[in-house]
Amino acid sequence: MIEADIKILYQSDFFRIINYKCYCTICSLSEPEYNNSFCISFIRKGFFEYGVFRNQYEMYVGRMLLSKPGYEHRTRHINNHPDITTVFEFRPSFFELLKEQFHSVAGWFLSNNDLHALMHACTLDADYLHLRIVEKIQSGSFNTMQVDEMVIELLNKIFYALGNESDLLLLNDKFKQLHLGTIEKAVEYLREHFHEDISLTQLSQYCFASPFHFSRIFKAVMGIPPHKYLLGLRLQHAKFLLLNSIKSVTDIAFESGFQSLEHFTTGYKQHFKINPTQQRKENSKV
User: Fold this and answer.
1) With bands split at pLDDT 50, 70 and 90, how would you rate the model's confidence at 253?
2) Structure pTM?
3) Which DSSP string corresponds to 85-135?
4) How far is Cα 61 from Cα 4, in angstroms, rounded to an integer?
5) Can you tell me whether residue 84 is helix, strand or coil?
6) Quick check: 1 pLDDT over 60?
7) Cα angle 218-221-226, degrees, rounded to a multiple of 5
8) Complete domains list, the chain, with CATH
């Protein structure tokens, strides 16, 4: 039997956000469960297998699960790694709106009755925004419309990314058992300290691994090397501040972990195809 703490963090008129924390200490298989809602799950820690019909999806950090309503599924925790997951659960009527809104980019999944669920790489921008939403709710400093708008933005990021399918590297059981915990620790550290000057040696030592070994296993799990993940976090944070604060571009650059305004501007333009000042001006016109 799977034991878990299920806490509703937030509830809107078209979705709710749930923090799911499993307490299993041994590998276990759940009883058949029935999905009543369309759900998007972000795996923050742990490792589990999600089985629906004939498909088995292995879920861990760096991946997200999209599961459609109306299908029976079972979950199994592997290697005694209970998970902590953020679940965005949408009302059935809103799922119909999703199928209509994103038909051109994700109709192949949303409207296909033979596809009951989908495992996908969790893009940096979607993961960052999901964490900002949870942080905003937990701070208590928010209004309903603000959170709703952030969730709509999150859906846009996720479904337009589905239009660019990426192959996920399959990891063998021994690799997952030995290294997933290390990468979870690294990702958590980077999320909390991205504004600091972090070296590869510092990060690998924090995870009790050599720089060479750490770089290899990080890329295998997350799909990108550590420095690109760190840069992505900094850029996503900078964009959020540009669009949601009145701080100067210079202050945002340093607060986001960049060592110079020039470095920030160059990196931002390369990634978003627009410089920070223009980004703010374009947003003010909306």
Assistant:
1) very high
2) 0.86
3) EEEEEE-HHHHHHHHHHTHHHHHHHHT-TT--EEEEE--HHHHHHHHHHHH
4) 19
5) strand
6) no
7) 30
8) 4-162 (2.60.120.810), 173-285 (1.10.10.60)
